[in-house]
Amino acid sequence: MRHNYIDRIIADIYNKNMSRKQYFYKFSQNIDINHFLLYNRMYIKKTDTLPLTGSDGMQRIYGITKRSKYMKKRSTFTGGFGFVMAAASSAIGLGNIWRFPYLAAKYGGSAFLIVYIILVLTFGFSLMIAENVIGRRTGKGPLVAFGEISKKWSFIGVLATLVPVLIFPYYNLIGGWVLNYTAGYLSGFCTTMAEDTYFTDLLANPVKLFVVEFIFTAGVTAVIMCGVQKGIERFSKILMPVLLILAVAISVYSITLPGAMEGVKYFFVPSMEHFSLQGLLAAMGQMFFSLSLAMGIMIAYGSYLPKNADIEKSVSQIEFFDTLIAVLAGLMIIPAVFAFSGGDETALGKGPGLMFITLPKVFASMGGTRIAGSLFFLLVLFAALTSSMSVMEAIVSSICDRFGMGRKKAALLTGIWGQAVGTLCILGYSVLSGVKFGSMDILDSLDFLTNSVLMPVTALLTCIFVGYVFGIDKVKDEITLSGKFKREKIFTVMIKYIAPILTVAILISSILDSMGIIKF
Q1: Buried (b) or exposed (e) across 40-51, using 16+ Cβ within 10 A?
Q2: Which candidate, 105, 116, 114, 516, places its Cα nearest to that of 274?
Q3: H helices then E strands: how many in the chain?
Q4: pLDDT tens figures, 300-336
Q5: What is the pTM of this model?
């Protein structure tokens, strides 16, 4: 008897669609008792006297079921829409805003965009399906989920959890930078923030950085403490539409600037002479990081996904929102920089330099500086908040599942961890500026370790695990609990053969990029 049939029966009881009498009858008619005991062996107590036959046996089986993963009071999203809003909000982070426009402009405009979309629909789709299935199948966060399926492969869960543990502190520091700029534009200090030394002066001010990071971290922690439905889902349903509205408004404003249409053409007209193997590797890396893959996030969110939610449909919707925001980010930034620089594409940088140095100068050169800057940095702040919420939730869910700790306590400890390590990153720009790992400061070192090493390695191991240990059939069983698996063939080929090769390529290219051997 396949596991998914047991899943269906237990899920029906959990969702109160089946009475105890109906449950007993269906179990006695359709379930191999020995198979059930094997499947739920971790929930059997010494008091469950064997054999489990007859009326008394059925009562004991029902007791075992109530102790199973489906009967535990685990938080869930209210449905597929809540999950999509939370997961899409997670995917729409700083990488989409400060890296995608630069890469698209550098590697052939729409040629890069087309390749990126193809990768999202194949490579990204497969990894996201795999992680969501692992989460929903086990009902556990990343630290515990892999061990629930195979104890020999539980180490993948450790790696998947280590990624958000290391990302959370420095991501919150960057969130503090964004909060500082947002407050500055809202307060009218537009000219000051466009000065050449403003950003470097900010980095050299540890007290100010500590305060803005603390405020940002406290806000994220408060949301996570509220839980899945009242915290993550509620805020995502509010912030995601606001993000889209702001992105559309800023894009429209950007493309109407004098000289901006040259930037629009540069973005949308394919330029194959600028596309290369490096462009393909850059598109893979951007897709990989943009969709929040190999960070434990999609496993944690998948564990909150109701059994009646259509996984494939939800993943398709997340792909759409992620790509939409990437395109809008290109329309927000590329035309504006072109208008500012007179059509010089070399003025378009990436990362903190683009966000905190180039764009304030762009805003200062145009009319309505305060409004444009405020709207833009509000958008970035909301994107940073939703992404940080998802990173923190991956940690908190793992702590709760592994150690049985309450959500509020786990969130508080995670927040303290984030602020403490974030403070070390802050001091890396001042009193600890001499602490280097190669040529990298503390923040850059954490970024390199997580983005260039741990995430590709975790993704590679996840592909191997799902393709050859967990099995494609079990993936199909989980997905077909709530819908059809329309892209099953794409998933099978990608997860077993192509995705492992692509993750190795991402790993190698990311390391070479960090070493300066190749540049994206």
Answers
A1: beebbeeeeeee
A2: 105
A3: 28, 0
A4: 999 999 988 999 999 999 999 999 998 999 999 999 8
A5: 0.85
